[in-house]
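Table 4 source record.
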Amino acid sequence: MRKHAIFKNLFFVFLALSLYAFIPYSFSQQQEAITIEKVSAEVYCLYGGGGNIGILKGKDGLLVVDASYAQTANEVKDEIDKFSPLKIQYLVITHYHGDHTGGNPIIGKEAQIISHENCKASMLRNLKPEETPESIGAPQTTYDKDMTLQVGDEAVRLVHLGPAHTSGDTVVIFEKSKVIHAGDLFFHGMPPYIDVNDGSDTKNWIAIIEKLCEKYPDYQVIPGHGKVATMKEYLEFADYLRYLRKEVAAAIKDGKTREQAQESIYFSKFSHIQDQGQFLTKKENVGWVYDEMTREKK
């Protein structure tokens, strides 16, 4: 009997570990209550469904930025419907990760779904055998460098400034409201995910942040994860990325392995950036930047 109980317990431990392996890196955000915060004028931020969702309330409809996970999309859509009875006219996708696109078929069911062309390509490249472009809510409209959408009195600019977090990041600029939705070009208060396999470029990522902060110094920033921030706080995030690149470059020059670099780089100046679980950590950041920099030399 006792032996049976031990095997039963081991089974459930194994099952839990197996499931944990497939949990997306920002799963913790699913567990938060879904709330909507006013940012400026008619721009709002929805927290709790995955990546942060931006909402612009126009006179005749809504523009929504990102669509959360598939498993939280119905709840997110219900909250948006409570927030406003207006139809979602546009769903803008900042990049292809599942915590920002999983809800496309539900959030964007009646909307025009828009992304950078590389974002759509990455979504299609990662299709599972049982999926189709229609079933995952692949964007119907893509752009190359920039695009402008008129929603009520707000001209919304979609801008791609080159690879950074991924190969197809979009920055959404609400110029009248003085708000930027940066997507995962900003992880506020936590280490970022750096998608080396999709062509991340942390050097350009820093340049993008500096360019945005110089051009829009008094704007508020909706990050992909974390609370709405100022441009000063966005620049502090750029400082973190710059430190990462500097220290990893020195480790590579000294002939250190990836693991040695991870163990030798410390972040005492960045105590405000807190590890999230076992995946979004400063140690993992060192490893990803190491992979990126050694990839560049090949």
